[in-house]
Design goal:
alpha/beta, Purple Acid Phosphatase, chain A, domain 2, 2 domains, 6-stranded mixed sheet, 12 helices, 16 strands
């Protein structure tokens, strides 16, 4: 996978395509006119052109204003920009090759003096952007209510779909440590395209005798990057490749319930709210599972964060946090025992005394960035603090300039569960938790 240490080449690429649209470049218009798959199909060519121009203008403006966290490889939060990253990465001579994990993000960029040649992606990105959204799939008890053995190990990987050495090491470690189940908490980079989804499946660590991902033990949640391609390949290629019915599921035994949730189909929502009623079956499934098993401890898994120590992410979590409060109102105050999530490329143990559940961020699953430096939660303009934490993974790999990647291993033994936070070099980030 090719990494971008700056947004400049992506913006330049979009600007080049925008210019070709505005100047009515013949080849660009021909490709736009030939499209039969996107939601633009059937419209007059000039109307297609104008819609494409508006989308590129919006994406370029968003990308220009988007924050670039210090030392992080750039991954846009804008869908069209993410799709452009996918096509741009695939158009380089590095296609199919892994970038050495010990190379700093600054040296993995396009630009002057870099051996990677910038090749404009053309109209493909906008046509992909305008394809229809995947249909939300409804889970059934027969296929998505999975028995969790009384004694077993469950590996949680988050923001892991990057096809690099960090991800490979974590996957290998999960198997070496005896994982019976492997669950990805979402994000296949850059846009969850078909090719990226196929690579994700090829890299899947838990495999059967036939060499394929072990169905019934392998699960992947939906992430915002999968939704940049509007979930078309997550809901087909990924789910079918893992033998997974829907984007939500429950693993349960007599003591525990692991609730895998889709919070990306509608960003930061379990229910879909007023935006998409097709997600309501997930909400009903979750509440029914909790109410039908009031003595079991629930561990929630999602891509998006319900809490955060960082102000932008804390504010983004508002809707999901409100749904969490609604769940408590409809069940009881102790409904959620723990919640693991990703999305932020960090690893943080939040303060259990400040939340009503054990909140654990494990989003440092593959993406290279500089080591974490947090010493206190951010504060808003009223001096109110974000979510407090007790530990931050400031570990490094290699020469000490790249943050280490981590996964969580849950070991169940009847009513007991222990959690290890294991770094890619095999070291422990945080002391084993005994729940």
């Amino acid at each position: 996978m090719f990494f971008f240490s700056t947004k400049d080449p992506i913006i330049q690429d979009m600007q080049a395509t925008l210019h070709r649209l505005q100047s009515k470049d013949a080849a660009t218009l021909q490709a736009l006119d030939a499209d039969t798959e996107s939601t633009l199909a059937g419209l007059p060519l000039e109307q297609k052109r104008q819609k494409a121009i508006v989308e590129f203008q919006k994406a370029i403006k968003f990308a220009k204003n988007e924050d670039e966290p210090d030392g992080h490889t750039f991954h846009s939060r804008d869908p069209l920009t993410g799709i452009t990253q996918t096509h741009l990465a695939r158009s380089t001579p590095k296609l199919g090759q892994q970038v050495e994990d010990n190379v700093l993000p600054e040296l993995q960029a396009f630009g002057q003096g870099n051996p990677i040649v910038w090749i404009p992606t053309g109209i493909d990105g906008i046509l992909e952007h305008f394809k229809p959204k995947a249909k939300f799939k409804v889970a059934t008890a027969a296929a998505s209510q999975i028995a969790l053995p009384d004694t077993c190990k469950v590996a949680l990987l988050a923001d892991w779909g990057a096809d690099n050495d960090h991800a490979k090491r974590l996957g290998d470690l999960a198997i070496a440590r005896g994982a019976d189940f492997v669950i990805h908490l979402g994000d296949i980079y850059y846009s969850g395209s078909k090719a990226e989804s196929e690579t994700f499946l090829r890299n899947w660590p838990l495999r059967g005798a036939d060499g394929q991902p072990l169905a019934g033990k392998s699960f992947a949640l939906n992430g915002n990057h999968e939704m940049y391609s509007l979930g078309r390949y997550y809901f087909t290629t990924v789910l079918e490749g893992l033998g997974q019915e829907a984007s939500y599921f429950t693993l349960s035994n007599d003591w525990w319930q692991i609730q895998g949730l889709d919070t990306a189909y509608v960003p930061f929502s379990i229910s879909g709210g007023t935006e998409d009623a097709s997600m309501k079956p997930q909400w009903d499934w979750l509440l029914s599972s909790i109410k039908s098993n009031p003595t079991k401890k629930n561990i929630f898994l999602s891509h998006n964060q319900p809490v955060s120590a960082h102000l932008p992410e804390f504010e983004a979590s508002y809707q999901l946090n409100m749904e969490f409060r609604q769940i408590l109102q409809e069940t009881n105050a102790n409904t959620i025992f723990a919640w693991f999530f990703g999305h932020e490329h960090r690893c943080i143990i939040y303060d259990d005394t400040k939340t009503s559940f054990k909140a654990r961020l494990i989003g440092n699953g593959a993406i290279p960035h500089h080591p974490q430096k947090e010493v206190a939660p951010d504060k808003d303009e009223t001096n109110t603090g974000c979510t407090a934490f007790v530990a931050v993974n400031k570990g490094t790999i290699g020469d000490g300039t790249v943050a280490i990647s981590t996964f969580a291993l849950l070991s169940f033994n009847g009513a007991n569960c222990s959690v290890e936070y294991i770094n890619e070099d095999g070291s422990a980030f945080y002391q084993t938790e005994h729940w």
